[in-house]
Design brief:
Blueprint lengths: L5 E6 L1 H14 L1 E6 L14 H7 L4 E2 L10 H7 L3 E5 L7 H4 L6 E5 L7 E2 L2 H7 L4 E8 L9 E8 L6 H25 L14 E2 L16 H10 L9 E5 L2 E9 L17 E4 L3 E6 L3 E13 L1
Parallel strand pairs: 1-2, 1-4, 2-3, 4-5, 6-9
Antiparallel strand pairs: 5-7, 7-8, 10-11, 11-14, 12-13, 13-14
């Protein structure tokens, strides 16, 4: 171990697993606080709890309603530092105030932009060209504490949420490797964040994946589809039209249909060209090609 300091880890998802793996290899981790597996969601990532059990590290899975009472357990563990990476609940201040070296969270955006839930998905939905990861102090408001370190990355025009996650994995580890030793020895600088200059988004719901060509341009449809891919990780965007429901997995806005072969064009309509190509006519007279769709049900 390069430090005798005790760390209590809160985390979930692949970025959480990566961080936990690094921490247990270099520090004294006294506990892993994570979540029960949601059987309604695809589990595409490695589990923190399984790695913790291999190392003999205690695992805790308090529900959100039990976090306040979990304070006593944290006091007994007496950590010097709390690190949170993709933990889904707001941690009470009573817990955050326990470690003498502070409590820090790794957020999947370049703060103060895209504070809140599902920052990777929201960034793509909103058409952002850049994003990143940020390690910040945890305070009462979500993602509003002083910034410890950040790394940025470009979001490609056709990049999916899953691909953006892969970009962020090495960036978040790079931050942890450089920032935690400095936090421990007291040399890490902090930058106050002005949340008024950023943005906040709430938790996404399944219905948020509904494609509405009457209200969305082709580019907005394209952004929504790639923000919810791959299907192994996220509930895909879907289109309800003519009594049918389609999951849409891939779209293209770089091409245009042969308009002379289309009659009676109507915004919101789905057209089939060349017996197989699917084109959706969207707001502002824009077209998006549906490259990969799966008919799921008859409504």
């Amino acid at each position: 171990m390069i430090s005798p300091k005790k760390i209590l880890f809160f985390g979930y998802s692949q970025l959480g697993y990566d961080a936990f793996q690094y921490l247990v290899n270099h520090f004294s981790v006294v506990g892993a606080v994570t979540h029960h597996i949601n059987k309604a969601e695809p589990c595409w990532f490695d589990l923190v709890e399984e790695r913790a059990e291999e190392y003999g590290i205690p695992v805790f899975k308090p529900e959100i309603s039990a976090l306040e009472s979990f304070t006593e357990t944290v006091e007994q563990l007496n950590p010097d530092l709390i690190i949170s990476v993709y933990y889904r609940y707001m941690i009470p201040m009573r817990i955050l105030d326990i470690p003498q070296l502070g409590s820090y969270n790794m957020h999947g955006s370049f703060l103060p932009h895209f504070r809140g839930c599902a920052p990777i998905n929201w960034a793509i939905v909103k058409g952002a060209k850049t994003s990143g990861v940020t390690l910040h102090e945890m305070v009462e408001k979500p993602d509003a504490g002083a910034i410890i370190a950040q790394r940025s990355c470009i979001i490609g025009d056709n990049e999916t949420a899953g691909e953006l996650v892969e970009k962020m994995r090495p960036l978040s580890l790079e931050i942890l490797k450089t920032a935690i030793p400095k936090i421990i020895d007291g040399t890490q600088k902090k930058t106050c964040v002005d949340i008024k200059k950023g943005s906040y988004f709430g938790r996404r719901k399944p219905d948020d994946g509904c494609i509405n060509p009457l209200e969305q341009t082709a580019q907005e449809v394209h952004n929504l589809v790639r923000a919810l891919q791959p299907a192994s990780q996220y509930p895909s965007a879907f289109l309800e039209i003519d009594g049918h429901k389609f999951f849409v997995h891939k779209t293209d806005v770089s091409a245009q249909p042969q308009k002379e072969s289309i009659q009676n064009v109507s915004i919101g309509a789905l057209y089939t060209l060349n017996d197989q190509e699917k084109w959706l006519y969207c707001k502002n007279g824009t077209w998006v090609k549906l490259c990969d769709i799966t008919p799921m049900a008859i409504l």
